[in-house]
Each structure stands twice: as C-alpha cells, then as structure tokens.
Design goal:
eight-stranded mixed sheet, about 350 residues, alpha/beta, 11 helices, 14 strands, single chain, four-stranded antiparallel sheet
C-alpha cells in the first residue's frame, strides 16, 4: 500500500457560539455559565490514495463541507490530524503552510463568488503560481497560464477578460485552471457542479476525470447528488450530524449499503428507472441539533431499527469486509435489522 495522499485522523471542528453573559447564564442545578458550541465535525477519519476519488455525501448540514474547509485549513481544526503525504498540517502556522498549499488546492461551489471580479483571468490563474515561483521562473508564468487555459478548454484570448464575461461552466473551468496552476497532488472539490446546468455538469465532471487520469490527481469530492457520486467516485464516505457512519468502495456501497442512513439516502434518490425491488426507508422527524448531540448513536432518533443499545452506546466504525466500514450496532446483531 502506498502512502496516502491525504489521511485524516479523528478530525473535530467545533464552533463556539458567542453571546452575552446573560445568554450563557444557567441556573438549573446551580448558578453556572455555559459556553455552547456547534459540533460540526465529530471525530472523522479516512484516507485518500494518490489518484483516488473519495466522495463525502449526506444531507445539508451534516458537516461534509466543513470537513473539506478544515482540511484546506480555511478553518482551524479543534482536534485531530490532517496528513498530506505523511506530514501533519493541522497545527502549522501560515508561513509553514505555504509550501503545503502547492500540494492541495480547492475548487469551490459557486464559480462566480470564488473568483475576484476585479481581476482578469490571467491574474486569477497566476496568483497562486506567483506565490510558489521566484526569480527567473516568473518569466515562464504567461506561457504556463496559456497552457492551463487550453487544458481546461478555454482560449488564450480569454486571459484578458473578467469573470462576469463568462458563463457558469466557463467560470468553473477558470477555477479548475487556478487549482492546477501549482501542480497539486490533491484537489478538494466542494460541490463543484451543483450550481451548474445538468449538461454543463457532465462536461465539468468529464474534464475533472480527464485531468485525474493525466496528472494522477486525488480528489476529495463533496456532493449531495448520489448520481454524480456514482459516476465519479472510487470510494464514498457517508456523513450524518458530523459523524462518518459508513465508508466503502463505490460499487459496494451502492449495491450493499449496511448503515440504515445510507440505505435511506439511496432509497430516496430520484431515478428515471423503475426500481420495483428497491428498498424503501422513510425517515421521520428532524435532524438533531448540533448544539446538543444525542446520546449513543447520532442517528437513533430517526432510525426505524433503533433499540436500547443505540441510546446507551455510540457505535464505532467497524470493518465488515470488502473495504467497507460501518458505525452501526446492527453489524453485531443483524437479526434486529427489520422495521
């Protein structure tokens, strides 16, 4: 097994909620002050091999985008390790992170908001590159920009235009060119096609896969669209309320999901094909608040298979074979797996 391009170990990201002293004052059980936090990510672990596409899926608010931004060090992690080619970057300062930035880049969801409207395309693409090259190498930057634009399907004449002069798909191609400018090994793609028309989505996805094959890129791909994930991913991690509840190779997860939440997601996914034999699991209730996590299993308040152990004990990810790990007590007692 080669060294992972990215390895995340027990990553946590909690956001403290500010407020006045009166807001934080509690009298029940004695006079005290509380410092509430949003438990956005709660001990997530996974690894991505060079050239592999790892997708994170789950409902809105499950923490998948927070994982991406924490790995990119947009957020300062509360705890855990983030290893890029074996080096833990979770506690590195700004200066020490600069050479690491060349190893990982990010593609954002909104291709317009992520581009500086005051910069021309050539400056947008060159900005991360100029942070990495010095001296005589800077003379090569214009040629590299032209080559990058051609690589993502844009013309040299586009270099002198501003972002508002492009369509959404073209703007996302500019974002991809910017990410490629420093020849990274890992690209973090946070819902990169969700803001685009379906026909344009296919073009961007195919471009990303072509670039993966050409440059050996690894992707952390964030999405809520299971059809997109099934097309692009090698491995899929399923998140719920900041926890990783299942992690498996794509084909294994889509054909033999083990966690009740994964099965509910797949049963709810829209399809133009008739699935008379597809399992149907209807979830009731709302996702619990990330301010106060439920005891035991994070999914127990909505799970149709929950039982006493789910309230008392939080399940850990267990290897169930075929490269699949599941955080569910049903893996120990499968006879309970019925409505």
């Amino acid at each position: 097994m080669t060294q992972p391009m990215l390895e995340v170990r027990d990553l946590k990201m909690h956001f403290p909620i500010g407020g006045s002293m009166l807001d934080r004052l509690r009298i029940s059980g004695g006079l005290r002050f509380e410092n509430p936090v949003v438990h956005a990510v709660n001990g997530v672990s996974f690894a991505i091999q060079p050239g592999e596409v790892m997708a994170l899926v789950g409902e809105s608010g499950c923490g998948k985008s927070t994982v991406a931004k924490t790995i990119a060090r947009i957020y300062e992690p509360t705890a855990g390790e983030i290893r890029i080619e074996g080096q833990d970057i979770a506690t590195l300062g700004f200066t020490d992170l600069l050479p690491i930035r060349a190893k990982m880049q990010m593609i954002f969801q909104d291709p317009y908001a992520s581009l500086n409207p005051r910069q021309k395309v050539r400056d947008i693409v060159a900005e991360p590159l100029l942070e990495q090259v010095k001296g005589a190498e800077r003379r090569e930057v214009p040629a590299r920009i032209a080559a990058l634009l051609a690589k993502v399907g844009l013309n040299a004449e586009h270099a002198g235009r501003y972002p508002h002069q492009f369509s959404g798909g073209q703007r996302q191609r500019i974002g991809i060119a910017r990410a490629l400018s420093v020849t990274p090994g890992l690209i973090i793609a946070d819902e990169p096609v969700s803001a685009l028309d379906v026909s344009i989505q296919a073009q961007i996805l195919n471009l990303m896969m072509d670039l993966r094959d050409e440059f050996g890129l690894a992707y952390l791909f964030i999405s809520h669209d299971l059809s997109v994930v099934q097309h692009i991913a090698d491995r899929v991690g399923v998140m719920y309320l900041g926890f990783m509840v299942e992690n498996a190779p794509r084909d294994v997860l889509f054909s033999r999901p083990r966690h009740p939440y994964t099965r509910a997601l797949l049963s709810a996914a829209p399809s133009i094909k008739a699935h008379r034999d597809r399992e149907e699991i209807t979830l009731t209730g709302e996702v619990p608040s990330a301010l106060t996590l439920p005891s035991g299993c994070c999914f127990r308040t909505r799970c149709p298979f929950a039982w006493d152990r789910c309230t008392a004990e939080r399940p850990k990810l267990q290897d169930v074979g075929e490269g699949q790990t599941v955080a569910c007590h049903l893996t120990d007692e499968p006879e309970r797996d019925k409505p």
